[in-house]
Specification:
It comes from Hymenobacter lapidarius. It holds the Pfam family HTH_17. This is Helix-turn-helix domain-containing protein. InterPro entries: DNA-bd_dom_put_sf (IPR009061), HTH_17 (IPR041657), SinI_DNA-bd (IPR010093). GO terms for molecular function: DNA binding. There is one protein chain. By secondary structure, this protein is mainly α. Among the domains are: 53 residues; 51 residues, Multidrug-efflux Transporter Regulator, Chain: A, Domain 2 (Orthogonal Bundle), CATH 1.10.1660.10. The protein is 52% helix and 7% strand. It is built from 4 helices and 3 strands, in the order H-E-H-H-E-E-H. A 3-stranded antiparallel β-sheet has the order 1-3-2. Helix 2 crosses helix 3. It starts with 17 loop residues before the first helix and ends in a 32-residue tail after the last helix.
């Protein structure tokens, strides 16, 4: 038995070898294939360019969001963002409802942690669990003086 016993093409076959096959196909379909391959190459380049641009935009947006969430806030800034008074923000930090850290003696918060706490404290209907209450006395009803403003 021979090691290289691949079947040899017969003389009556149309295509004798792969190289000759390609040459014959190229002669038969050269103009159509060339146009098709050119269009295919243009389409592939366009698709790759679009995908690259989309990935670049997504990467830039993710980086911008990460930078914004890493922003360090003071107690006053966190209170304003949450719509709470600063004392409540201190209490939330002490109760660990809001993740905080210290810079020297000052308490600071990361914007991402504050937004996460805000989302956690929001009810499904959009109302806040711990919304700031209206301060001050309620509006007094206007008193009407009898006979005032009416000409008789």
């Amino acid at each position: 038995m021979l090691l290289n016993s691949s079947p040899q093409p017969k003389d009556n076959q149309i295509f004798a070898s792969p190289k000759k096959d390609v040459e014959k196909l190229a002669k038969l379909f050269a103009p159509q294939w060339l146009e098709f391959l050119t269009q295919l190459e243009c389409y592939i380049r366009w698709a790759a360019r679009e995908e690259y641009e989309l990935m670049t935009v997504e990467k830039a947006a993710a980086a911008a969001e990460a930078d914004q969430n890493d922003q360090v806030l003071t107690v006053a800034q966190a209170a304003q963002l949450l719509g709470l008074c600063p004392q409540t923000v201190y209490e939330w930090a002490k109760a660990e409802k809001l993740q905080a850290f210290k810079v020297g003696r000052a308490v600071r918060f990361k914007r991402g942690h504050v937004l996460a706490a805000l989302q956690q404290q929001t009810q499904p209907d959009g109302r806040r669990k711990y919304a700031r209450r209206a301060t001050g006395s309620p509006a007094k009803p206007a008193t009407v003086v009898a006979g005032a403003g009416a000409d008789s």
